[in-house]
Amino acid sequence: MEMDEIVEIVRGFDGALVVIPEVGSVFPELAWGDAFFYFAPDGVMPERTQPYGTIITKDYPDDERSDLEPPGRFRVNIQVDRGRAAELTATPVDPAEADAFAPHPAYGAAGWVCVVNPGHRTADMVVELLRAAHDAARARAQRRER
């Protein structure tokens, strides 16, 4: 599964906003080329809401264990609940292993999971989890509106 495929799937979710900062944009240079997924039916990136999923295409400072520097490598990060995260990551894996669920290097304790280069073992579950994260973000937004 390629990054572009995942981005197109998420763009198909009702009310989804996918932000992909471009070179020279107002976003920090470190974020250029990465993707950030929000529930934002108005098409405006929320100011006080974290994305429910991201795709990063390079190592970040203090986050190099996924080894994203080789060409073609990327990591999908998804917010799930802590229980589900524990189920998905019950079997420890090398954080650089492709097509395997691992706790997010920084946010794993908060219920985030990640997959480097999703493939035949994880692609369907990645899509399912992104859909569930999107639906949870929608429910949070609706509660805030009340």
Automatic annotation (TrEMBL):
Protein origin, superkingdom: Bacteria
Boundaries of every DUF6194 domain copy: 1-145
Protein's recorded name: DUF6194 domain-containing protein
Annotated source species: Microbacterium terricola
